[in-house]
Amino acid sequence: MTSGSFSNASSGRGRRVILWRHGQTAWNLERRFQGTTDIPLTDEGLAQARRAARLLASLKPDAIVASDLARAAATATELATLTGLDVTHDEGLRETYAGAWQGLTHDEIMASYGEQYAAWKRGEAVRRGGGELETEVADRAAPVVLRHADKLPDGGTLVVTSHGGTIRTTIGRLLGLESRNWEGLGGLSNCCWSVLGEGARGWRLLEHNAGTLPEPVLGDDD
User: Is 22 a catalytic residue?
Assistant: First the structure.
């Protein structure tokens, strides 16, 4: 999804933030809720990270920050290897803690927590499995992103390597959306990313669930 020019040189400091989901894990394939469980990448997940890293390296990032969980840390390492940048690991970027849901498949969650799942999908504030609220995830993750973005030079790029749920809530918070509307952003495929850029009225969503390099917007919405 493209909603604005990839270049924001005319507005503010023109910084951009790339929020990059980790590569595939065995639990992804099994549709098993990972949460904060520390699951490694599969061989395919590592290959996904290497492919994506080659693309993202061409954007000349200035900094990389990542969740300290193994699947995100290993994904970020592939970009660090190509760029020579250090990775800062921050537990504030971990996936949502979901208590009793963690380790369960989608079908098992539906069988045991079907109403809780439905309430979450309706946009209600739900502690899935007794874990974190989505707003609590945003409370810990969004400040990490902003803190590192604030250190960027004008026109600089930050890559944030994290998890699908955490990325969605962070984007929602940075765009100023009400939490019940965050689900409307949709999910990220393994090793795909979203791009936020500075606009005249704050952060703008420029790309969502992308797996190729962004193209400039040529038209009336530029």
Answer: yes
Residues near 132 by beta carbon (within 8 Å), at least 6 away in sequence: 96, 97, 98
Contact 82, 53 (CB under 8 A): yes
Are 219 and 17 within 8 A, CB to CB? no
Model pLDDT for residues 67-113, shown as the tens digit of each residue: 999 999 999 999 999 999 999 999 999 999 999 999 999 999 999 99
pTM for the whole thing?
Answer: 0.91
CA distances to 104, 110, 126, 128, 173 from 115, in Å: 16, 8, 10, 11, 26
DSSP 4: S
**Given the residues 30, 78, 89, 95, the one annotated as active site:** 95
Average pLDDT over residues 127-131: 97
Q: Distance between CA 41 and CA 23 in Å, rounded? A: 6
Bridge partners of 65, per DSSP, are 88, 160
Reported for 26-30, long-range contacts at CB under 8 A and 24+ positions apart, including other chains, are 28/190, 30/105
Active site residue: 22, 148, 163, 208, which one?
Answer: 22
In a 3-state reduction of DSSP, which class is residue 175? helix
Distance CA 190, CA 162 (A): 11
The runs of H, that is alpha helices, within 6-133 are 26-29, 43-57, 70-83, 106-121
**SS3 state at 41:** strand
